[in-house]
Amino acid sequence: MTNSISTDICIIGAGPVGLFAVFEAGLLKLRCHVVDALPQVGGQLSEIYPKKPIYDIPGFPDILAGDLVQNLMRQIEPFHPTFTLGERVERLAKLEDGSFQLFTTDGTEIFCKAIAIAGGLGSFEPRKPAIESLENYEGGRGVYYMVRDPETFRDQRIVIAGGGDSALDWTVFLADVAKEVTLVHRGTTFRGAADSAEKVKNLHEAGRARLVLSSNVTHVHGQDGLEAVTITANDGTAETLPVDSFIPLFGLTPKLGPIGDWGLELEDDAVKVNTLDYSTSVPGIFAIGDINTYPGKLKLILCGFHEAALMAQGAFKYINPDKKYVLKYTTVNGVPTL
Ligand code: FAD
């Protein structure tokens, strides 16, 4: 069944700028639905550098990227935003009354009066290993490039591949969920945190997970869905292991993706905007944060926050052409709830 959502502003991208846009829209009593291709909020901050301190957020001499995301989530709580995570917005249609309909990869449709694209560097796409016919097992047929819901793997026999934090962390986590977990890594040392690598080695020694080093998953097999994978060691020896799921975790790379096909004026893979209100070449669609470009653009979080404030004013005017908006300070009026 199609999941259908109706809102005032659909924000594409749950990075810091998309999240703060919920706050600015909320002050104007506009409801927001936020969609992100990743299974968690925070954009680059959660995906690339959650433990790195940031020093140029006004009012915070230093703050860990992950903590900033948590604070933003707290800050927008009063406005009860709704989220669709782990789904990429693929297509949009402008309707006759000037509103929009958006479609995600997983069939969710969102009706909204305005759109704020806060897509950052684009949606993060998984780096896929070069294994013949791998794509035949995508789409819920046994190959997964990210763990959206660990319960998918309950009581399964799974093989994870990779040597970074994701591969290590999910091996540790899924050891308690899956029936059998095998981590395959092409080297002998890990890129991920030493502490996590230690945990995986301990699980291996305790017989609760299997660690196969200096090896790669080279073949996938199965008729209707995935049934087995072949693991080939660097010395050429191979074993074929029956599995229910194979999870290659080789990192994510950002790609502009479908946003580039929506008829918006672009420049160097970024969306051109009018700095008056960060509107794009299509009325009703705004672009804020790293995804946009204009003379003097700085790809900084604080610049994206400013853009979110002006975007919200622009979206308010687009949605309510006859209403006048008067700026009110939150210090005087508090934070209204929706
Ligand atoms: P992002 O954080 O990129 O989030 C965009 C989100 O949109 C992503 O989660 C993506 O999955 C989603 N998305 C895209 N397309 C779609 C689609 N079609 N459907 C669904 N979802 C989609 N900035 C600073 O100000 N200070 C710093 O100290 C700093 N340090 C940095 C350190 C590193 C290592 C890096 C990589 C960046 C740093 N930056 C820093 C830059 C900062 O992270 C970015 O400016 C910021 O993340 C931009 O936020 P955003 O919300 O625009 O986009």
From TrEMBL:
**Binding sites annotated in the UniProt record for FAD:** D36, Q44, Y49, V89, F124, D290, T331
What is a GO molecular function of this protein? flavin adenine dinucleotide binding
The kind of enzyme this is, by top-level EC class, is: oxidoreductase
What Gene3D superfamilies does the record point to? Answer: FAD/NAD(P)-binding domain (3.50.50.60)
Q: What are the EC numbers? A: 1.18.1.2
Q: What InterPro entries does the database record attribute to this sequence?
A: FAD/NAD-bd_sf, FAD/NAD-binding_dom, Fd--NADP_Rdtase_type_2, Ferredoxin-NADP_redctase_2
One Pfam family in the UniProt entry: Pyr_redox_2
Residue span(s) of domain FAD/NAD(P)-binding: 8-295
Which reaction is the catalytic activity of this chain?
Answer: 2 reduced [2Fe-2S]-[ferredoxin] + NADP(+) + H(+) = 2 oxidized [2Fe-2S]-[ferredoxin] + NADPH
Q: How is the cofactor bound?
A: Binds 1 FAD per subunit.
Q: Which UniProt keywords apply?
A: FAD, Flavoprotein, NADP, Oxidoreductase
Cofactor(s) needed by this chain: FAD
Q: Which HAMAP family match?
A: FENR2 (MF_01685)
Subunit structure of this chain's protein: Homodimer.
Q: Which family does it belong to?
A: Belongs to the ferredoxin--NADP reductase type 2 family.
Q: Which PANTHER family match?
A: THIOREDOXIN REDUCTASE 1-RELATED-RELATED
- Protein name as annotated: Ferredoxin--NADP reductase
Q: Which organism is it from?
A: Hymenobacter aquaticus
